[in-house]
Amino acid sequence: MSEPPPLSVPEARQGPGRMPHGLLESLDLVVARRTSGALPGDRRGAGLGAGTELAQLRPYEVGDDVRQIDAAATARTGEPHVRLHVPERTLTTWIVLDVSASMAFGTAERLKSDVAEGVVLVIGRLAIRRAGSVALMTYGAGRPRLLPPRASKPGLVALRRAVAEGVVPDGHSDPHALGQALARLRAVATQPGLVVVVSDFRDQEEWVRPLRGVAARHSVLAVEIRDPREHELPASGRLALVDPETGELLEVDTSRRGLRERFAALEAEGRAEVAKTFRRLEVAHVVLSTDRDWLRDLGRRLR
After folding, report:
1. Based on the domain organization, do 68 and 189 belong to the same domain?
2. Which of 5, 27, 139, 238 could form a disulfide with 172 if both were Cys (CB 3.0 to 4.6 A apart)?
3. What is the count of structural domains for the chain?
4. Which domain holds residue 69?
5. pLDDT-above-70 percentage for the chain
6. Are residues 79 and 97 in the same domain?
7. What is the three-class DSSP state of 76?
8. Distances in Å between the alpha carbon of 167 and those of 29, 75, 274, 291?
């Protein structure tokens, strides 16, 4: 088996841009509530522990933690009683990141990979804020690569290093990569958590069924990243275009109005089908663009 091509940072990379601290703080509860439906502390663990929900109130036994003695029950019964609670289980967030060649495209303020980088860093920060952990799986460059769940600063450092590696060169992408990544994620993420898929979703081959399996166990947020030039062709005469996924060269005459209208119609149809798929699977869906303030759009959509 040949080695997967190395990732590289696109020459036109701009980075995700400014991420104001105040805006990130406001996204904290919004993202957690809207995408996962529960915060750490809202999720039950097995057995008994130091949570906030009462499991039982019983007489004190030798060896019990004296800090769990309930003063009211003790005074009422004349016998020491202890309170036992349901433990809180922290939330694990799994980020699935597209590093295929199409993510290096961008004609506005930044590349799609720049926006994806920002989304990963924001979701990562929110994931670890309440002692949660974050994992990253990248796909599009050979076998999906998994960084296991980590908490606190090590988790963010791992994310930063991974997204800084860039994307795969043109012509080396695998149309089945997303489906393979989701199938692997389903195998390793055995406990319910939050899955955030960051991609342009340019190819629907074989990822719908694996996504359905992931959504059956986890809360899922699909972050779709677009560029305005993917929706319509400019009237610029004859152009030589390269498909970044396959490396195929295609020459088109963009001065033909019929061709431009057909292109726009097919693109709109494709994007509508992607949105329909997410609705059918009950997956939360947000669309970000390279020509807009992606961070504000992310927060606005999730409110």
Report:
1. no
2. 5
3. 2
4. 53-86
5. 81
6. no
7. helix
8. 31, 66, 23, 20
Considering the domain architecture, whether residues 125 and 256 belong to the same structural domain is answered as yes
User: CA-based Rg of the chain, rounded to a whole angstrom?
Assistant: 24
Contact call for residues 200 and 173 (beta carbons, < 8 A): no
Instruction: List CB contacts of 43: < 8 A, sequence separation 6 or more.
Output: 88, 89, 90, 91, 192
> How many CB atoms are located within 10 Å of the residue 273 CB?
11
Around Cβ 103, how many Cβ atoms within 10 Å? 28
Residue 110 DSSP class: S
Are 92 and 132 contacting, i.e. CB atoms less than 8 angstroms apart? Answer: yes
Query: The domain that contains 184 carries what CATH number?
Result: 3.40.50.410
> How would you class 269 by CB atoms within 10 Å of its CB: exposed for 0-12, middle for 13-18, buried for 19 or more?
exposed
For residue 187, give every residue at least 6 positions away whose Cβ sits within 8 Å of its Cβ, in sequence order, or none.
none
Can you read off the two tokens belonging to residue 36?
Answer: 């996962």
The whole-angstrom separation of Cα 42 and Cα 25 is: 20
Residue type, 54: L
Looking at the structure, tell me whether residues 75 and 142 fall in a common domain.
no
Q: What is the 3-state secondary structure (H, E, C) of 9-36?
A: CCCCCCCCCCCCHHHHHHHHHHHHHHHH
Domain shared by 67 and 131, yes or no = no
The number of residues making up the chain comes to: 303
- Rounded Cα–Cα distance for residues 159 and 153 (Å): 10
Whether 131 and 224 map to the same domain: the answer is yes
Least Cα distance to 8 among 127, 111, 136, 77 occurs for 111
pLDDT tens digits, one per residue of 137-149: 999 877 888 999 9
Kindly give, in sequence order, each residue whose CB lies less than 8 Å from that of residue 209, ignoring residues fewer than 6 positions away. 179
Task: Provide the percentage of residues in the chain whose pLDDT is more than 90.
Answer: 30
